Amino acid sequence: MYGWLWRNIPGGTGVKLVTMLVLAGAAGVLLWYFVFPSLEPHMPVDRATVGR
C-alpha cells in the first residue's frame, strides 16, 4: 500500500514526503477523534475484575 501511494502521489521526493506525512497525520486524527471514541463503549477497559 505504501509503495502504491508513493508511486501515485505527484511531485518530487520532498513533496511526496510531506504529502505522506500529512496523510499519516490525517489518519491518526481520524482514528483518535472519531473511530476510537465510537469503539470505546464496546471495549471492556474500565471493568475491574481483580479482587471481586
Q: What can you see in these coordinates?
A:
The protein has 52 residues and is mostly helical. The chain has one domain. It has helices at residues 2-8, 13-39. The longest helix has 27 residues, at 13-39. The chain is rod-shaped, with a radius of gyration of 18 Å. The model has no long low-confidence stretch (mean pLDDT 88).
Mean pLDDT over all positions:
88
Shape: rod-shaped
- Helix fraction, binned, reads 55-70%
- How far apart lie the N and C ends? 47 Å
State the secondary-structure class. Answer: mainly alpha
- Biggest pleated sheet: none
In terms of DSSP E residues, the strand content is: under 5%
The helix tally amounts to 2
Cα-based radius of gyration, to the nearest Å: 18 Å
- Secondary-structure element pattern, one letter each: HH
Number of strands: 0
Number of domains: 1
Which regions are unreliable across 5 or more consecutive residues at pLDDT < 50? none
Features:
membrane; single chain; transmembrane helix; 0% strand; 52 residues; mainly alpha; 65% helix; 2 helices
Summed up, what is this model?
The chain is 65% helix and 0% strand.
Strand and helix layout:
Layout: H1 2-8, H2 13-39
